[in-house]
Write a structure and sequence with these properties.
Length: 401
């Protein structure tokens, strides 16, 4: 049966296997982490498990449909997506649901469901950049025809996301810069604009609605807000409360962990099912489990790089590179926060953290990467058929008497 299913899944088989492993691991980790949330909401943990399973199932359907569509169609779709994304980001800032002084979500009318518009923006911008870079390769050094239109779209999306979600905006800008470098945009031009974007980001942080949160997180990470040891401080009031609990989870996990479902820090760590799920995984599965999870994301990036090097078309190359870098950098950022290598950001772990739109848009991105890979396989199959020697025609003449 498994062989039957795998035969219908085209594209890079290793990416499919990695996605299946991460999704299965996600079910175990989320089920183990939602106990406190279920208690607060007065609901059973099974309900959250069923909801998460449903989202993963829908994600697989979207991934399958996305990988069946020829990736070249996404060039045209990207224009429509960008036309929808910019107004949606602006609408979210003005009228979106505000949580912790950040307007990041839109409520879908009649359903009560919310989705984060930055998830759509990440996918739209990367696909749009891939289209622009592939079509402007002949005039890529022209500032007016290539550089300004491309950087204009990047900076526009950056500003609209950064106002409420700086961490996502910074990561998306970083991925965009990598894509521009691959697309042969002048390094000097990128450096000048990047300096301007950094200045713009500082201004947004300084005057934005979440400036106090940003300052507090950065100060806490660098130890500026540490109080004197003689001053009694409640652990709950500690600015490093989240980071400290994550470190406790990692430290107590040891080499092989406490076992699935045996986490202790899930009861005190904020958002153990999303932002800090990596810390819970290390606590339950140990350092070995944490390294295996890291290896899966690195293996995914390696497979994406193989697709990049094998793609015969520039658009496919930029698609696989941009989407692959985006998902991998997001995963590494989440892990870095959990182990104390970066300030708290609130970025989910792709395909593992509990979430709605994050998993769905990630699934579509994976489907697009697999579509590029599927196209490469089909071209290889045609080349092999063309190389096969054609059977000689046997002309049967008259038989002598």
């Amino acid at each position: 049966m498994l062989q039957n299913i795998m035969s219908k899944l085209k594209g890079d088989r290793w990416i499919w296997i990695i996605v299946i492993i991460l999704s299965g691991w996600s079910l175990l980790a989320v089920y183990s982490s939602v106990g406190t949330l279920a208690y607060k909401e007065g609901k059973g943990t099974e309900m959250y498990l069923l909801k998460h399973f449903s989202i993963i199932a829908i994600g697989f359907i979207l991934m399958y449909l996305s990988h069946k569509l020829d990736y070249r169609y996404y060039a045209g779709i990207s224009k429509i997506l960008m036309g929808i994304t910019i107004p949606l980001l602006l609408f979210t800032l003005l009228f979106g649901s505000s949580v912790n002084q950040a307007s990041r979500w839109l409520t879908i009318p009649g359903t009560g469901m919310t989705f984060q518009t930055s998830d759509l923006a990440k996918l739209s911008l990367i696909v749009f950049l891939a289209r622009m870079l592939s079509r402007k390769q002949e005039e890529i050094k022209d500032v007016k025809k290539a550089f300004l239109p491309i950087m204009g779209s990047v900076c526009g999306v950056f500003v609209l996301i950064a106002w409420a979600n700086m961490s996502t905006a910074v990561m998306l800008f970083g991925v965009s810069v990598l894509l521009l470098l691959i697309g042969r945009i002048s390094f000097k031009q990128i450096a000048i604009v990047s300096a301007g974007v950094v200045l713009l980001g500082i201004i947004v942080v300084s005057v934005g609605p979440r400036r106090a949160t940003y300052y507090s997180r950065v100060k806490s990470f660098f130890g500026v807000e540490k109080k004197d040891d003689a001053t009694p401080v409640s652990f709950q009031d500690d600015k490093n409360y989240q980071a400290n609990n994550a470190k406790i989870a990692i430290a107590t996990g040891g080499l092989f962990g406490k076992g699935p479902g045996n986490s202790v820090q899930r009861n005190v760590l904020p958002h153990p099912y999303s932002d800090f799920i990596y810390a819970i995984i290390i606590e339950e599965y140990g350092t070995v489990g944490g390294v295996i999870l890291l290896f899966l994301y690195l293996a995914f990036m390696y497979r994406c790089i193989r697709i990049v090097t094998m793609s015969p078309k520039a658009f496919g190359t930029f698609l696989a590179a941009g989407l692959g870098f985006s998902l991998t950098i997001q995963a590494l950022a989440n892990m870095a926060v959990a182990v104390g290598l970066g300030p708290v950001t609130g970025v989910p772990l792709p395909l593992v953290s509990m979430g709605g739109t994050s998993i769905l848009f990630t699934s579509v991105a994976l489907g697009i990467i697999l579509s590029v890979s599927r196209n490469i396989e089909e071209l290889k199959g045609k080349e092999q058929l063309d190389e096969k020697p054609k059977p000689k025609k046997v002309v049967i003449g008259s038989i002598p008497a």
